[in-house]
Amino acid sequence: MKLSIKNFGPITSGFVEEEFMEIADFTMIIGPQGSGKSTIAKVLSTMMWIEKALVRDDFTEKELKLPGRFRARFDYHNIKSYFSDDSTMEYIGSMYHITYGGESKLHVERVTSSERTSIPKIMYVPSERNFISVLPKPSLISELPESFASFLDEYDQARKDLKGDLELPIDDVFFSYDRLNDISWVKRHNNRTRLSQAASGFQSLIPLFLVSTNLAKQFTSKKESLEKDITASIVANGGLSNEDLTRIRNEIQELLAKKPNDTRLINMVNSLLASRIPSYFINIVEEPEQNLFPDTQIRMLFSLLSYRNLNEKNKLIVTTHSPYLLNAVSLAVASKNVYGKQNLSLNSRRELESIVPKEAAIASEQLRIYKTDDKGKISLLENIDGIPSDENYLNDILGNFNDDFGRILEMGDE
């Protein structure tokens, strides 16, 4: 998967080092506020959704090329106004190659001839997620983007799917949902507090963690073959709306009516289901560190990485300006190398597990870290032997802080 953006909102020259940004299994975007981190994530989310919609025949290539149709898709994230006369973007996915150079310069090309093409569940976790915990009916806020409403739906579904207590990536803290009274609870040390009255860190973390956990369970690589039980596969998939289910049932019935008792029918049905039922999970998260203590930030990231690793096709895209998360990525990459050693002692393995869970380790070739600046430029963060370089603007800020502190102490000694 590749992406190019130029002259769109805060992004001007875009990624200048190469023609395209490569979207890896785990892609992190760092940069100061207003520099375009979330813009990249939102454009990527929109392009992936357009590709998915084309595969599902939600609309045709011809319909997408109608005046205003392509730009209208960016209303979902409230970024349609970012378009200018010289905006360009290009996306190369597993199924479609989409190039935009203006209203009359939209090119859409299918890049695979395979009829059986799998589609992802795309989840965009917005930075406004803490509103869910505080406001009684956040969906009524008219200025929030549609992506927030979609996340709210997933959050409500995840609460309903929850059985018992959910352990959070914080020591001895659990989340539970009283379905009868529609109350979310945070439990700690035999005490419980309504989520709406809990600390801001819980209000930000719980919606993200709950939704990610619920969706990750649905898209593991161990998912049963669709051939075994088509109906069960449809019903069990919580990522489908009633409209999706109805459409699938109708199309299957049409196939069955045309070729009853045909042994080849199962292949036709599987092709249909592959383009209708998501088989992997793309998690796009804005600022997972929001309102969290550094140690919790790191645990949260390791949880998200472990969910990515449940299915080889899953992807995790994160925007951040937290130096703790960036350094945690270095730990995850370094641990992957150590876990692969055959002669690793049991004591060393246990100690390593206490630092980075094996499930969260990730290889350097699965990682890309991009940085944005206030001039609209995107660049690739350098690495040393596959591990992110310490020389980056987040660590530079910490270094400047230490330098300033030392200077102040020197002034005091004068």
UniProtKB/TrEMBL annotation:
It comes from the Bacteria. The keyword Nucleotide-binding applies. Gene3D superfamilies: P-loop containing nucleotide triphosphate hydrolases. Keywords: ATP-binding, Nucleotide-binding. GO terms for molecular function: ATP binding. This is ATP-binding protein.
